[in-house]
Amino acid sequence: MAATKEESYDVIIIGAGISGINFAYRIQERCPTLSYTIVDSRHEVGGTWSLFKYPGIRSDSDLYTFGFPWRPWSEQTAIAEGANIRNYLSDSAKMYGIDKHIKFNHVVDAANWSTPEKKWNLQVTANKTEKKTIKGQYMLFCTGYYDYFTPLKAIIPGIDQFKGKVIHPQFWPEDLDYSGKEIAIIGSGATAVTLLPNLAEKAKKVTMVQRSPSYLLSLPKMDGLEWLILKTCPTFIADKLIRLKWLLVPFLFVWACVHMPTIMKRAIRRRTMAELPPNIKHDPHFKPSYNPFEQRLCFCPDGDFYKSLRKGKAQIETGHIDTITANSIKMQNGNELHPDIIVTATGLKLLTGGGIKLSVDGKPYEIGQHYMWKGVMLEDLPNSAYVVGYVDASWTLGAGKSASLEKD
């Protein structure tokens, strides 16, 4: 058996997604004498934007703040598709030499803090077979919040009886031909809202089956103010002004939702009703049981979701599923659907720290049994930080705050 290889760095970053690339840039910028490496279980930069391949995968935050402040988003659209975001991350890493520090196909199995050494010792499997020990004084978790390998298995009565295809968006088969098929999407969150208009382009009919609705607003890919700024200002000024606009407007919108929920519910209702075709009623399909931003609000660029409804290519079924048979979805209200394909857009399986087995001086450490300080440092876990993004603003803004390196 080959001996385990050993490497050593000042800082170990786990994850080559948007948080890991951002952290690496800040280390290079502020602490250029420190050595660092990024380890990632995947084969390329991107994290979420490398994993998800379902039709239309896109951001649900604007790219002017979701992008890095040190490399402004330059495309003239606030909401971007997944492939464009992945390319943006990859290009950003190459531009600043960060890509030379990344170890792909490296799975961190365990990490132990050694007090005598004052170092982290990471047990890593590289390329599925090679065993390594990577040591570092500091360890940064940029692993996101969900399980990349196991999707969330929702309890849907009778789903195992269905004879057609059942697909989870996390593992979308890229060769799937759904032309002329009837598709049922179970779920009402951002994934379902994204899938519906994109599947409707080729499918015979797409039905979003939701137990309860979400708030959904149209968002222009570029509004009049952005167009004016781009036409009248030099690029370096336009970048700052548009980013400032996307910092202020969402903040004010969320503030209004929290402090004036009744007014905002009425405003969202009016906007929604103006988008709906006559055959689809606002209630119950677009009447959530909670106030705006008690759960994250969904956006659709240029109203593509509502356009699909108006074209008659898509519909909504609100209610509880009674059971799924070999060829149908039976609702408790008596309605029945006959899809060829069922897409279970029912969420992600939460996983902290990438599932790494943590220990301190050989004693197992459970993240869920400890406090987190200001969303950054974990109680009794030395020389480490856990990067977490915001839920009511772009993830990158929160990740920057976690690093305590940005002022946005």
Characterization of the model:
The structure is a single chain. With 408 residues, this protein is an alpha/beta fold. It is built from ten helices and 21 strands. The chain has helices at residues 18-30, 48-51, 63-66, 82-95, 190-200, 224-232, 235-259, 261-275, 304-310, 395-402; strands at 5-14, 36-39, 102-103, 106-114, 119-126, 130-141, 165-167, 182-186, 205-210, 216-219, 298-301, 314-318, 321-324, 329-331, 336-337, 341-344, 357-360, 363-365, 372-373, 377-378, 384-386. Strands 1, 2, 3, 4, 5, 6, 17, 18 and 21 form a nine-stranded mixed beta sheet that branches. A hairpin with a 2-residue loop joins strand 17 (357-360) and strand 18 (363-365). Helix 5 (190-200) crosses helix 9, helix 6 packs antiparallel against helix 7 (235-259) and helix 7 crosses helix 8. The protein is globular, with a radius of gyration of 23 Å. The relative contact order is 0.17. The model has no long low-confidence stretch (mean pLDDT 93).
The averaged pLDDT comes out at 93
Give the overall shape, derived from the CA principal axes. globular
Low-confidence stretches: none
Radius of gyration: 23 Å
Give the helix level as a range of percent: 25-40%
Distance between the termini: 51 Å
Largest sheet: 9 strands, mixed
Give me the count of strands.
21
How much of the residues is beta strand, in percent? 15-25%
Number of helices: 10
Question: Class by helix and strand content?
Answer: alpha/beta
Please identify the oligomeric state.
single chain
